[in-house]
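Subject: sequence -> structure tokens, single chain

Hey, anyone have a minute? Need the predicted structure for the following. Not urgent.
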Amino acid sequence: MKRGKIKNRMGKSLYVWIRSFLLTLILISGVLIILTNWMVNSFSDEIRKLNHRLTANIQTGIDIRLNDIDNFMAQFPLNSDNLYLAGIHSIEESDVEKMIRMSTKLNEYKLSNTFIQDIYIYYPKLDYMIGDQGYFPARQYYILTHDQDDSQYKKWSKELISGQNSEYYFQEDEQGEVQLYYRKWLPYNDSGDKNAVLTLSINKEEVERILKSDKYAKGNSLNAIVGENGTIYTCSGNEDEQSWIEEALHNQEQNLNIETKQYSGAIQQSEFYQLKYVTLYDRKQMLENSFFVRNIAYLALTICMILGSILFWILGRRNNRPIRNILDKLYVRADGNSGDEYAMIQSGIDTILANDQKSQKKLQEQRNVMEGMFLHSLLSSEERNNSAIFAAMQRFHLQFEYSLFQVLVLRSKIGFSKDETQTTIDRIINCVQAEKKEIYAIATEFKGDIVILLHMEMETGESDREVLPRKILKSVGEVQSGIRLYAGGTYDSMSNIILSYQQARLLMESVNESKQQIVWFTENSEVPKEEEKPEFGVMAEYEMAMLEGNYESAQKQVDRLFNQYIGNDRHVFTARSKKYAVINSLIEAIYRMPELGEKKEEYITQLQNARDNQTLLEVIHGIFLILIEMQRKRQKTRKEGCAQQAKEYIEQHYEDPMIGLYSISEWLGISNTYLSTSFKKQYGVGIIQYINQLRIEKAKRMILNTEYSMKEVAFRVGFTSDMTFIRVFKQFENMTPGKYKKDGTRT
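Reply:
Had a minute. Here:
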């Protein structure tokens, strides 16, 4: 009986070993097939990159030369001799010395730039030409430059003045070859008449020399320059396959890289001119060796599989007993049960998933702690300045993407213990996250209460704002009974977070005996009164409002400044200094308003001529009204294209870690609510999401094309820490930056 059990175990072990061998063989076969195909694809990618680099080099070489010609053309209309010749009405009025200088200048430029074949200026009013060959009547100059043949003169002169704009254009010469010309009309009088046309032809041999600089331009490649309408200007290499160019241009659409079964290549658009640079390679010929190696690998793999199977069968039969003994030791445990490798694998997967959940939970707990510290710091400092709050967000690695803010306060009659506080905060955050709406919550303990900051999208309805507090109260009721919730007002600015909190505190003091579990702040509720600020505090508020361009707020402080800060000072010189401080801030604001134009000096003179405080106060109020009106007009203009302006500003300043919805809205001088709504309506994403998306795209290029560390990449694209960078990168790419770099390096 015992020998039968052992025999069964040995048979099962042998079966498992055979199965493992076959699986391994199949796996190796699959890997080899993938590797060989990867090799072919890699070679194809290298060829595409080579095509792109070659085309870019050709484009750069030719564009630089054409741009140099363009710069010369742009400067030439200011030449004094040319201005003189274009202004006269008959050749008899001309100055021969000026013609000689003109011809010499054109000839010298032609000699200095080998890209120029011929260059000349035609004056239609004079029917005269000056060029690198000299200065002659138009017909004589044509005969001189066309081998004493004037049969095509009329057609040539008509085409010479037919163009309406300055441009590069293609035209066939007498031999039927396509030539590249540049024509620039030169208007010189107030009526805009075109008195001269400057024309030059490009040296085709020099262009072909650049094309042939390709070391691989043999029988398997084709380099060409093509016009916007598909005209082939010149090409080198395998010229018998010019039909490839037409097919590539037809199938190109928006792709720079072209690949078919027969050829692969790249098409690059000139950055300055209506030209295209094309580089094509015979794909079959270039990858011939790769295809051969792949076929050999397939054949060798098939042979190895057959020989391996035969050898395994022979060895298995000859060494059956020793192998069974080894397998028996490996698979039979001490308790007499056979091993199950699938159960072990499943156990390992379960362990990995459990560890991942623990890591995610720990990361979320750390994030909740950081957010709670930020809220506690904000409540302690009672900060109301948007810029200061935004700076604090950066320190705590936070981002507010939505527009609305509301503060809720939970109060218990018996207070919260340490354990109850943390449990309550966790339940609150989980409750908000379960809503799966554009609402985010931050919670912390502050002065014995639990304070919740809700951050919501503008489209969040009133019903959602009313239902969520009830759900929060229900979720925390399991921790402790007798908890009451006080809800402050909802605002669209971070500067009003403290105001919403104070409103909730006011409700706790004014309705302490209420039996309602949730108390809402309404317009009928009493707003907390601000304490009377000292005189120096009024001046500080005035200066801050002027620096921020908030002229309406500054105007409200002017009367208090003159009545308290300046009027109560009995020392004449001190009062005068204070008055000048107020006036100087206003003068700086006047100079920052270019719309005022020449009226700036008039307003400054009015301030200087005011003899008494009452007159000065009237002048100041009048100037403030003008500044406010100008600012409103500017804001109205900015609102019309605020989304586009915000997008351009982000693309120029994405590397600034302080950039965000509130800094951009402050820069544009509009409300963050309007900017957030307009941007999302026009581009379909929020501003913070667009900033992060742009930063990640820039970071991906740095990761693949530079040797910067992940920390350097994070700082260069605007993240305040590498941890924040990794978290955001994973949100967009579903992988870490390190894995992205490895994948990019392998391809």
